[in-house]
Amino acid sequence: MANPGSGRKGNVVRPSVFRGKHRDDAPKPILVMEEVYKYFRRDVPTLRNVNLTVERGEFVFVTGPSGSGKSTLLQLVYRQHTVDSGRILFSGRDVSRLTDSSIPFLRRNLGIVFQDFKVVPHWTVYENVAVSLEILGTNARLARSRVAEALERVGLAGRGNERTETLSGGEQQRVAIARAIVTEPALLLADEPTGNLDPQLAIDILTLFEEIHEAGTTVLFATHDHSLLATSPHRLVVIDDGRLIEASQGLRAWSARMQSLGASHAS
Amino acid sequence: MANPGSGRKGNVVRPSVFRGKHRDDAPKPILVMEEVYKYFRRDVPTLRNVNLTVERGEFVFVTGPSGSGKSTLLQLVYRQHTVDSGRILFSGRDVSRLTDSSIPFLRRNLGIVFQDFKVVPHWTVYENVAVSLEILGTNARLARSRVAEALERVGLAGRGNERTETLSGGEQQRVAIARAIVTEPALLLADEPTGNLDPQLAIDILTLFEEIHEAGTTVLFATHDHSLLATSPHRLVVIDDGRLIEASQGLRAWSARMQSLGASHAS
Amino acid sequence: MEIWSALSRAKRGFRDDLRLHVVAIASLVVAFLCLGTALLSVENLTRIASRWSQTQHMTVYLRDQAKEADVAQLRLVLESLGEISKVEHISAVRARELFAEQTNMSSADLAQLPTDAFPASLELDLADGVPSARIEKIAARVQRFAGVEEVETYRSFFGQLRSLIDAGRSGALLLSLLVVVCVLAVIGNTIRLAVANRRREIEVLKLCGATDSFVRGPFVLEGVIQAVTASTLAMLLLFVAYAALHGHVESTLTALTGVRTVFLNPLTVLGTIAAAAFVGAIGSALSLRRYLQV
Amino acid sequence: MEIWSALSRAKRGFRDDLRLHVVAIASLVVAFLCLGTALLSVENLTRIASRWSQTQHMTVYLRDQAKEADVAQLRLVLESLGEISKVEHISAVRARELFAEQTNMSSADLAQLPTDAFPASLELDLADGVPSARIEKIAARVQRFAGVEEVETYRSFFGQLRSLIDAGRSGALLLSLLVVVCVLAVIGNTIRLAVANRRREIEVLKLCGATDSFVRGPFVLEGVIQAVTASTLAMLLLFVAYAALHGHVESTLTALTGVRTVFLNPLTVLGTIAAAAFVGAIGSALSLRRYLQV
Ligand SMILES: Nc1ncnc2c1ncn2[C@@H]1O[C@H](COP(=O)(O)OP(=O)(O)OP(=O)(O)O)[C@@H](O)[C@H]1O
Ligand SMILES: Nc1ncnc2c1ncn2[C@@H]1O[C@H](COP(=O)(O)OP(=O)(O)OP(=O)(O)O)[C@@H](O)[C@H]1O
Ligand SMILES: [Mg+2]
Ligand SMILES: [Mg+2]
Prior knowledge:
The complex is a heterotetramer, with two copies of chain A and two copies of chain C.
Chain A: E1 31-39, E2 45-54, E3 59-63, H1 70-77, E4 85-90, E5 93-94, H2 103-107, E6 110-113, H3 125-136, H4 140-153, H5 169-181, E7 187-191, H6 199-214, E8 218-222, H7 226-231, E9 235-240, E10 243-246, H8 251-266
Parallel strand pairs in A: 3-8, 3-9, 6-7, 7-8
Antiparallel strand pairs in A: 1-2, 1-4, 4-5, 9-10
Helix pairs in contact in A: 3-4, 3-5, 4-5
Chain C: H1 2-16, H2 18-52, E1 56-62, H3 68-80, E2 84-90, H4 92-103, H5 107-111, E3 121-126, H6 132-143, E4 148-152, H7 155-197, H8 199-207, H9 212-257, H10 266-292
Antiparallel strand pairs in C: 1-3, 1-4, 2-3
């Protein structure tokens, strides 16, 4: 199951653009950012000179203070925004040079957990999760069993028929997670997926992401939650003041740095 | 400044219903819940037999697993929902027996940070914070200075003119906090106000709430964040399986209990 | 105080969704233009109806044996009546000729008709505004003169004509009503759209302790402003169109109907605008109800 | 496959906002009813116009010195022409009488008019459908006969009458156009409302990798379904109203205009419904554009 192109994806329609091209030379990284700059205001770049290479099958934490650009980084990958300079390669393809009509095919290879969930409040839980399979054209029977499985994995088994707006904050967040994982994407982008969950559930969800990672999916996990970072052995990158810092020396060194930064921030 | 009715509230219009009545006997609790039951599904109560007394000037943490009913508890106070049995007294008045037309006057005495922020995306940051003063009829000049002050306290000084939807998750959460505190309410209800903030900023916000609390405001703070609970000396109540448990024996005992509960939950 | 807040929030609403408001006003202008056209038709048809209902005619059929003197005397009497504006004598021969002209009948066929089918007659034109009761009285009196066979007052024909014009008028009225419903629907939908777009805003206001009237204020104002702007624009456009077309067709129209066309009277125009404002306000207030339950 | 998904999502859309859709369809029914009424007026006015344009008249004024024989010969010639359905001779005296009748002039005043103001004439009724070129040709030929002073073809009068009816018809057409614009506005706004209400849904679909056409599918379907339902209902209602009113006014109307009223022809009805479907689809697709930029 180490190859994300294999497995249960028989019913998943993926355009050849994003598949197979690099099957032979599997070590080619799934995501490469080269000298990425993003300006929302003319003078202050939100991201400056970001270089990041994520290999196939890696698990990368992204952290940093509020407003540092974590969400922006992920949004650049799924073309919610475009880079102002530099380039982003997904499976070797330059994301910022995709035409409008091929963006959907990029997104079908991604599983995205949005920071603000982006669930449809008046849909049922089932509909909210099934929508990403529906887009892929998965047949209804298979979709039903996979949605049920995904809901069970996030601890919402049997709640498929409730209207999503009646769920608690944490439950809605888990619906968003279920929607992202149900398609078994090649790359999972999770933006603060445990912000509304209690510590135990947060660890459960992290464990879930790790299981999915084991099965071959690459994971980019943006979070503030230091207790998650502390317990996991994964690679960690930190965004601060728009710059990306590789915390390869381990969490502790970075954490110390954070504390001092935080103290100056609070002044 | 111990009396929330005094201080800078000269411009705040508060109906006599919620003010003064108990000025003489100040020790009367600001919030009392008596045998509160709330059913969203016929068979399983979301809250069962909840009894809680919050004295004027107290700081109370509410915690519990995802979906346990923390938000529901707060929503019952500001009459988003009504109790199914039992009663809730705010300043001695039964909240569930208020007429529709007096609910606004109840809410004007509260500062509410919603779990999903409830900011208006196409308004500017300034407009989102000023709205609660506008409702109170505060004059424009005073409003400007108080909004500026509130924004500074949450670390968003000088960002009043940005459209709120362009802010990061954590920044939007801080806009919601600024809106809740700008009116200097008698009771502050904060539902997971640090879910999207980095640890340092979370502590800063907690400190802010503690300052406001010092100035005489009663605070009800629902959170998952155990690091916040660990560092604060405040009273802690736990909701689990719809029941409210007073964690008077200290955090540690409860935390141990949580761990075992969490383990069984994850099975 | 509250009105100022409502005004400034209404301004903010226009600013935030200018395009929507422009579309809304444009469609309202069209709707009001339809309404104005329908009202204009009703007004002018009413005038034609009242004019035509006054033009009346009566025929006094004479006996074959009627003496010349009797007829002359009757003529004199009739001409002396204020209600009768003109008297014409049609001989039996002329009546037969006229019938032939009207029916396009061959003279052979005509010859086969009995002679008493074409009696001589006096054709009377009645003055304007003679009530039908008076006409019946005159008819009854004339009936008693020597030489008079029968008096025809054409009640049924004029009744028919009047009912036709009435039908036209009520058609136009029905159309106006339809248009009013359409205007209501357009206003209603526009406001629903504006309200639905600002659901979040309303929710926030309510949760921060705003009263229903505080929330409603700017929406009602926006509804009124839209409706008044649109109806005023529509009335102006209608007047321009009326003035432009008027010169072209007025003379022919007057010749045919005997009535000069007029534009809507100023009271109707003002009334329409006022009604629009009212509907705009009520429509807004009603559309909000659903979202105020927070 | 995709069409089924679109259908099931459209069904979900109707389910989620049933009330909105009912309101939308209701206002569309009203709009289409207006359109149908306008079309009906245009159709019937057109028929009256074409009928009246065929009824024509010509007058041949005779010289005072015209010989009886010449006139009789001319009459014979004219009567032999297929284009002329009837010939009537009006003597100078009768012409004076007729004028007096028409103008209500006193005989004293009448006596002062010059004798040559009232020439004898032949009044010709023309058969239906004679082209005006042919009429002019006849007029030119008649002109050359002995005893003919002048030939009047009433081009200007019939021209005027036709232009009046044309004005009425183009008024009704203009109204139809207005109504079409109104219908477009109502459909447009309704769809915008539906789309704005489902902004979040569209955003989610786009972010999960749906193509624009996948997102558009159910909205276009909903637009078509609404427009077709509404226009069909409106046509049915219009027919019921027509059938109900028809009996009451038909006879008078026919007597006055010489034309039987008809309902819209089936092709027009089908065309309207098809156009509605088209507009519904295009309107939906266009309203979506703004929200597809995610
Ligand atoms: N569309 C936008 N237009 C303008 N500014 C934007 C936009 N999106 C983000 N920003 C700004 O860019 C900065 C980084 O935003 P981003 O959402 O990436 O932060 P973040 O690291 O995700 O923060 P948080 O932890 O609070 O979610 C913020 O200051 C925000 O105001
Ligand atoms: N309006 C509603 N209708 C039906 N069920 C509801 C409604 N609101 C809440 N619930 C249910 O009540 C339970 C408690 O919800 P609540 O939002 O109070 O949880 P919470 O403790 O705030 O959880 P979280 O930490 O995830 O925000 C949930 O299971 C939720 O599905
Ligand atoms: Mg973010
Ligand atoms: Mg909650």
